[in-house]
Structure formats: C-alpha cells, structure tokens
Design a protein that fits this description.
This protein has helices at 15-28, 46-52, 78-83, 94-99, 104-116, 129-134, 137-149, 176-193, 213-217, 234-245, and strands spanning 5-8, 37-40, 59-62, 88-91, 120-125, 159-162, 201-205, 225-227. By secondary structure, it is α/β, with parallel strands linked by helices. It has a single domain (5-245), classed as TIM Barrel, CATH 3.20.20. An 8-stranded parallel barrel has the order 1-2-3-4-5-6-7-8, surrounded by 5 helices. α1 (15-28) packs parallel to α10. The radius of gyration is 17 Å and the shape is globular. It binds 2-phosphoglycolic acid (PGA). The site of 2-phosphoglycolic acid has 13 residues, from β8.
Length: 249
C-alpha cells in the first residue's frame, strides 16, 4: 500500500479531541474513497482511532516501533502494533534521533525487524541547518541512507520522508525546486544501495500546510507529505489531502 499524505500527531490528542478531529476530517474530505491517507496518533490512541476510522479509508500507523520484543520495558513491538490493526510505522523521525539518541545503526535494526515482519515503514531522513548552510545536505542524507538501509531487501510500500530538520515546525521550507532535486537524489541512492534496487516514494515533511501544498505537489518527485502541526486540525489535514488528490497527475 502506498501512503501519500500522512499526519504525525506527535504527543498530541485526547479521547475527546480525537472524536472532533474525525468529525472535522469526515466533513471536509472530498473523496470518501481515500486509500492513501493516514494518521499516526500516540500509541495510547491507536486503538480508539482504528475503531473511529473503520468506515473511512484512513489508515492508522504508529509513530515508532521497537527493534525487538520481550524484556524491553516501556517499548512497543511490531507484533503489538499489528495485533490491534495498525498497519505501518514512522521510523527515524528527527525528534527520535535528537531527543532519544537513535543512531543510523540503531534505526537499521528497526528496519530489519520491520522488513522481516512484513511491516510497512515510513523512514525519515533530513539534514540540520548547519549542513544546509554548508551545502552538504546530499552527503548527510547519503550517509543516513547508506548506514541504515544499504543491502536491505526493501518491501513494497517502503517510503522515505525527507524532512529538513530546520523546516520542522518553523514555517520555513526549502526552495521547491531544491526539494524536488533532493527527492530525485534520495530515490537514486536508495535504489543503488538497497539489495533489491528498490525505488521508494519520497514524501516531503516540514511546515506543510494547505497554503503551500499545491506548489509542492506539482513537483515530479514529491510523492506526498508527512505533516505535523497542520495534521492536528482535521479540516486542514483533509484540505491537504484534497489538494493532493487534485494535483493533476
Ligand atoms: P511540521 O512537522 O509539519 O509541524 O513541520 C513535520 C514532522 O515533524 O513530521
């Protein structure tokens, strides 16, 4: 399943506000048959959101998964996610890398477990501001890709989310043509380094809203978006999904 528009709620939501989110989303989405739109609520709301969305095409994923199961206090395994009907996970978000110290090699373990379990992954990469200023974005991204996924057999649906760290939650986004060129670069590196020469879809993430979605989605190599802040509002998120649907190719 290829997912194009994914909301990352981070540590937000509540039993009550999730219900109003669904209401707002439902009345704002143009195509009730959506199949490529998803949200990732916190673990504790996965079950609620899976039941609330059972009559919508919306997919529900987790924001992270552990690389293993068993004696790992506080962690959530892939099997636990699958068990409640969660069908994919974000892995390697920059907040996991920065706040929780997740390295490229550690994330590789998560990817291996996910690929072995047939669990779909949205793998995040992205450069900090210093790399962007120094013009070394591509080197940085290449290292993230090679260290985490070289020689892995990637499953259908494996997707990259390119999120420049300095664009997350800041209202700033890179030049649209630069994003497009970076996505092409990412596709080429993943294709040449993965065992099965897999070319992934590449979503853009970082300050995406209904205002900039149209220009982003016109670009050839931008296959969709991973959306943080703007996904917290069901109406705004549906609007972005509507724009993607109408992008014209
Ligand atoms: P943002 O977050 O849309 O609020 O910039 C994106 C993300 O962190 O995935």
């Amino acid at each position: 399943m290829s997912l194009s528009i994914i909301g990352n709620w981070k540590s937000n939501g509540s039993l009550e506000s999730n219900k109003s989110w669904i209401h707002d989303f439902k009345y704002s989405i143009n195509d009730p048959e959506i199949s490529n739109v998803a949200i990732c609520p916190p673990f504790t709301y996965l079950d609620q959101m899976i039941s609330l969305t059972s009559n919508l095409g919306l997919s529900i994923g987790s924001q992270d998964i552990d690389s293993s199961s068993g004696a790992r206090t506080g962690s959530i395994s892939i099997n636990a996610c699958k068990d409640i009907g969660c069908c994919f996970s974000i892995v390697g978000h920059s907040e996991r890398r920065e706040i929780f110290g997740e390295s490229n090699m550690y994330l590789r373990q998560k990817l291996i477990t996910a690929q072995e379990s047939g669990f779909q992954v949205i793998f995040c990469i992205g450069e900090p501001k210093e790399q962007q200023l120094a013009g070394t974005t591509n080197n940085f991204l290449e290292k993230q890709i090679i260290e985490s996924l070289s020689d892995l057999e990637l499953l259908d649906g494996f997707t990259i989310a390119y999120e420049p760290i300095w664009a997350i939650g800041t209202g700033k986004i890179p030049d649209i043509k630069d994003i497009n060129a970076t996505h092409k670069f990412i596709k080429d590196i993943v294709q040449s380094s993965s065992k099965n020469n897999f070319t992934p879809n590449v979503l853009y993430g970082g300050s995406v809203t209904s205002k900039n979605a149209e220009v982003l989605f016109k670009e050839k190599y931008i296959d969709g978006a991973l959306i943080g802040g703007a996904s917290l509002n069901g109406k705004e998120f549906a609007e972005i999904a509507n724009i993607f649907k109408n992008r014209g190719f």
